[in-house]
Amino acid sequence: MSGKITINGQLIDFTDEKNILAVARNAGIDIPTLCYHPELSVVGACRLCVVEIERMGVQASCSTAPIDGMVVFTNSGRVNRVRKMVLELLLANHDRECTTCDASGACKLQKYANDYGIKRLRFPSRSQCEALDNSSLSIVRDPNKCILCGLCVRICKEKQGVGVWDFKNRGSRTEIVAAMDQPLAESACINCGQCIAVCPCGALSSNSTAIDEVWAALRDPKKTVVCQIAPAPRAALGEEFGLGSVDVTAKLVAGLRKVGFDKVFDTVFTADMTTIEESNEFLGRVTEGKNLPLFTSCCPGWVKYAEQFHPELLNNVSTCRSPQQMFGSVLKKKYTQDLGIKAEDMFVVSIMPCTAKKYEAKRPEFMTDGVYDVDAVLTTVEAARLFREAGIIFDSLEDSAFDQPMEQATGSGVIFGATGGVMESVIRYVAGKLLNAQGRVDVEFTRGMMIQRLPAYRLMILTKPGCC
Ligand code: SF4
Ligand code: SF4
Ligand code: SF4
Ligand code: FES
């Protein structure tokens, strides 16, 4: 359906936009939202996105379709009064300890409260002191900060196909709980962190206990503390420090040395090893005609998903370790020998883009003689916190190179950080080997695709989001 609507006196064309919110945003008019996500179903729960429509009154713009000839006001006095009241009611039922909140600075509720000048609440605050759920290695849930927007419920169910979160009770007793009201660690959660990404406030956050463990190791004179960095955080850290989407690898290496790491390595080294291993495994399976198609095992979220929901596919999952775990194993089993130290005297830290890597590092199969191959995993945001706590001014750091050995790596390993990158690396390697190609083999159709089917080699790889 197409037509024209008037928003704040401006005549605007619409074509296939599903709601007034999308029409307004496409025209450069912002409307605040807390429970809306363009890729999820619309529930109209928070009412912050209200607009005034002639002859229809105040309506939620996310759940109202545009109709040709509509006249809409997004910032009338009535609209702003309703939005302020919505915010005040949410804040009255909220633990407003911004100074100790992980989301502070990136919180939509905090931002909108500032934008709408909420200085005092007209409604009495409800004292809340519900216990945190910090049972998960990857995610912490703080019910005192939940505004019941339901985005976590929808992303987990509609996009991830897992369905961990749901609403419990009704009315003022409503809360979000993991399935069967059990601790998150005991649920089917695959630790992907997507619910954290969509949560508009500090109710869901990454489990950051690893930061203290890293500091303890750095201050322990008996420990050799080694860091590996995945491809994806390199640009993300630049954004975190306000440098834009630039590759800050060399500064990152320099900063980690300043923080106190004894050695800093590039996970791309073992991404290359993964490519070689997975490619040879694939070629072996093609020769034997067994266990095809082959699925990558690099993503611990995907591996747990397959274990829980598709055990019939487990023979199709590669037997290779992920680059993170390969590096941990190389460091603890081989590099300790080179240095003449015991595995328990080395502390291996990974900087990874995904919360599932925290869970992967603590899987029992990645422990040798009671020692984990990877001891602590920091997300990009946590690595930035480490730098801030150490008082490092990131953009003033001199460039520095990775330690040797293991600093040699290819571009194929780097693209593990992009969606479809693992598949592209494997296809490049396999094609190069089958065609006996000299030099670089370019494959241009894999990145960003969800599923590729290549009948010639009976290869189907589910492309996972960029990680390592
Ligand atoms: S969730 Fe937002 S508003 Fe609430 S305490 Fe955290 S930063 Fe402040
Ligand atoms: S981390 Fe992923 S699987 Fe776990 S609850 Fe959140 S969205 Fe669902
Ligand atoms: S935990 Fe976050 S995403 Fe989930 S309902 Fe509460 S505020 Fe919304
Ligand atoms: S964003 Fe529209 S009701 Fe919440």
Describe the structure.
The chain has three domains: 3-75, Roll (Ubiquitin-like (UB roll)); 90-206, 2-Layer Sandwich (Alpha-Beta Plaits), CATH 3.30.70.20; 209-272 and 319-460, 3-Layer(aba) Sandwich (Rossmann fold), CATH 3.40.50.1780. The chain is built from 15 helices and 17 strands. It has helices at 20-26, 77-92, 108-115, 151-159, 194-198, 209-218, 233-240, 249-259, 268-288, 300-309, 323-339, 356-361, 380-389, 411-414, 421-434; strands at 3-7, 10-14, 50-53, 57-60, 71-73, 139-141, 165-168, 175-178, 204-206, 224-229, 263-266, 346-352, 367-368, 371-372, 376-379, 451-454, 459-462. Strand 7 and strand 8 form a beta hairpin. Helix 7 crosses helix 13. Bound molecules: iron/sulfur cluster (SF4) (3 copies) and FE2/S2 (inorganic) cluster. Residues 146-152, 176, 198-199, 201, 203-204 line the site of one iron/sulfur cluster.
Total helical segments: 15
CATH architecture of the largest domain: 3-Layer(aba) Sandwich
CATH topology of the largest domain: Rossmann fold
Question: Any low-confidence stretches, pLDDT <50, length ≥5?
Answer: 450-465
The total tally of domains equals 3
The best one-word shape is: globular
Tally the beta strands.
Answer: 17
What spatial order of strands do you see in the largest sheet?
2-1-5-3-4
Radius of gyration: 25 Å
Estimated structural class: alpha/beta
- Overall pLDDT score: 90
What is the strand content? 5-15%
Distance between the termini: 43 Å
Instruction: Give the C-level CATH assignment of the largest domain.
Output: Alpha Beta
Percent of residues in helices: 25-40%
Largest sheet: 5 strands, mixed
Which cofactors or ions or other ligands sit in this model?
iron/sulfur cluster, FE2/S2 (inorganic) cluster
